[in-house]
UniProtKB/TrEMBL annotation:
Pathway: Sphingolipid metabolism; Lipid metabolism; sphingolipid metabolism
Membrane topology recorded in Swiss-Prot or TrEMBL: Multi-pass membrane protein
InterPro entries, A to Z: HD (IPR001356), Homeodomain-like_sf (IPR009057), Lag1/Lac1-like (IPR016439), TLC-dom (IPR006634)
Record PROSITE patterns: HOMEOBOX_2, TLC
Reactions this protein catalyses: sphinganine + octadecanoyl-CoA = N-(octadecanoyl)-sphinganine + CoA + H(+)
Membrane-spanning intervals of the chain: 57-75, 159-180, 200-218, 279-299, 319-346
Subcellular location: Endoplasmic reticulum membrane; Nucleus
Domain TLC: 150-351
Entry keywords, A to Z: DNA-binding, Endoplasmic reticulum, Homeobox, Lipid biosynthesis, Lipid metabolism, Membrane, Nucleus, Transferase, Transmembrane, Transmembrane helix
Gene assigned in the entry: Cers4
Organism phylogeny: Eukaryota, Metazoa, Chordata, Craniata, Vertebrata
Protein's UniProt name: Ceramide synthase 4
Length: 412
């Protein structure tokens, strides 16, 4: 007798939750928010053999992301790692440090890099010399740095995906007139039927960026880590939004523009880790030119321009219009930031004649006695570094070491 009321109550609770979700869904997807004026979701329902993009399609990207994570693990272990060995990628030999609870506690609490006055205090507490303290922190920092083989494996996975995505996207979009004339992306919008191949390529890209967010805690954290996270979230937001409101044409142009240069960057990093310097330098110059044209010329003058002006020629502005423009603007800000990093690399390239460090990446600190004397010199005062003072002020090698000491290769 007591089971029926409980069952009924549970059923009422389930109905109530379903009603709340339905109400939330109705509120979130209001036509006045996301669609141009006088356009309804009902007009975009499949009919008479015509198929349109629907928001629930993007859920397919979740299993795709999980499959890509599994594929990445397999690829890095059984393809990328043997390839790194074949290409001669060698991880640096790192000297072990003696365990020191006092220094370890400070290292974990104070973000790894103590100032000189603090190092003097730590030296007195531990009964060590200042140079021993500096050496301990340098070796401790090196322990947390990712090895070259891990960097190579990550870069090779991204290279393979971006290259395949670029080739696949190009084969799908090459014959579309709106790829070459972005203003045509708005022709008959939003009543544009779904291209099945384009849809799956789009969802594959979404799944890839979701997979990058999933593996974020385990990936190498570079100097632009925060900007990368922001880029991934903006990209996922753009893909989900553009698919949901049938903006696949302009969205696919944006995706292809990014794939144009992304695989070049990853290939450049692979060659850099393998010390194929001439190939790395050449590919970096090509990447810089492609990045400049696609991200700083074509993207703002064609994509953002047509999104701002052509998209509302036949309708007034609405919330979804402003939302889309904001996301594109955020993406462009990130493009400018990264191109500034590229310019710094180009300046370094022109000064030194070749790439000597990974783009956006942390650099292993030298543990040789000569480099110790050089790198420690600028930090010591009051006559404590007399022996290394001449080395600091003379020669290109010493200037490079001083540049490292001044923080140009610090970890994120």
């Amino acid at each position: 007798m007591h089971h029926h009321p409980i069952k009924c109550w549970g059923g009422n609770q389930s109905l109530m939750h379903s009603g709340m979700l339905f109400s939330l869904n109705e509120w979130l997807w209001q036509e006045t928010y996301w669609l141009p004026p006088n356009v309804t979701w009902a007009q975009l329902e499949d009919r008479d053999g015509l198929v349109f993009a629907h928001p629930h399609h993007v859920l397919a990207a979740l299993p795709i992301a999980l499959v890509l994570v599994a594929m990445r693990i397999i690829f890095e272990r059984f393809v990328a790692l043997p390839l790194s060995r074949w290409m001669g990628v060698q991880d640096p030999i790192r000297r072990k440090i003696k365990p020191n609870p006092v220094l370890e506690k400070y290292f974990l609490r104070m973000k790894q890099r103590p100032v000189e006055t603090q190092m003097v205090l730590l030296a007195s507490q531990c009964g060590l010399t200042l140079r021993q303290i500096q050496r301990w922190f340098r070796r401790r920092r090196n322990q947390d740095r990712p090895c070259l083989s891990k960097k190579f494996c990550e870069a090779s996975w991204r290279f393979v995906f971006y290259l395949c995505s670029f080739v696949g996207g190009t084969s799908i979009l090459y014959h579309e007139s709106w790829l070459w004339t972005p203003a045509l992306c708005w022709e008959n919008y939003p009543h544009q039927t779904l291209n099945l191949a384009l849809s799956w390529w789009y969802l594959l890209e979404l799944g890839f960026y979701i997979s990058l967010l999933i593996t974020l805690p385990f990936d190498i954290k570079r100097k632009d880590f925060k900007e990368q996270v922001a880029h991934h979230f903006v990209t996922v937001g753009l893909i989900v939004f553009s698919y949901s409101v049938n903006l696949l044409r302009i969205g696919s142009v944006v995706l292809l523009l990014h794939d144009c240069s992304d695989y070049l960057l990853e290939g450049c990093k692979m060659l850099n880790y393998a010390h194929f310097q001439r190939g790395c330098d050449t590919l970096f110059i090509i990447f810089s030119l492609v990045f400049f044209y696609t991200r700083l010329v074509f993207f703002p003058t064609e994509v953002i321009y047509t999104a701002v002006f052509d998209s509302i020629k036949n309708s007034g502005p609405f919330f979804g219009y402003y939302f889309f423009i904001v996301l594109l603007g955020m993406l462009q800000i990130l493009h400018v930031y990264w191109f500034c990093l590229i310019l710094r690399m180009i300046c370094s390239f022109l000064r030194k004649g070749q790439m000597r460090e990974d783009i956006r990446s942390d650099v292993e600190e030298s543990d040789s006695s000569d480099d110790e004397a050089v790198s420690e010199g600028p930090q010591l005062k009051n006559g404590m570094a007399r022996g290394s003072r001449a080395a600091i002020t003379n020669g290109p090698r010493s200037r490079a070491a001083a540049c490292l000491t001044n923080g140009h290769t610090r970890a994120t």
